[in-house]
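Reminder: ligand-aware prediction takes two inputs, not one.
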Amino acid sequence: MRHVMRISAEFGSALLGATFFLSAAFSGTFAGEAGQTHQVVIAKFKFIPAELTIQPGDTVEWINQDIAPHTATGSDKAWDTGRLRKNESGAITFSTAGQFDYFCYFHPAMKAVITVKGKLE
Ligand SMILES: [Cu+2]
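Here is what comes back for the chain with copper (II) ion:
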């Protein structure tokens, strides 16, 4: 089962993501509501906030403020921002409800969770 859709690992691809949301909204996927974007900062080897609750169709954007590279990688490896160097960001859109535990591929002790509310389809 596919839970998420990767949009981009590069901040510069944000336009592509915006285009996706626009077309999705017009096709009725989100009942006319475009998803919101939530930011998670990675700093001092922590995801901030470590717990985040969002709605289906919302996007989470991770921004790495550390010198060390990090990732946000689903615990089941179903999704991954890829390697984020300092000041790089990566975005993942979550389209189905559920609890999505994740970690940093380079530093597995770094853990956090995204909870996607809403009805299961
Ligand atoms: Cu890391």
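Confidence is low (pLDDT under 50) at residues 7-32. Helices lie at 14-26. We will return to this case in the review session.
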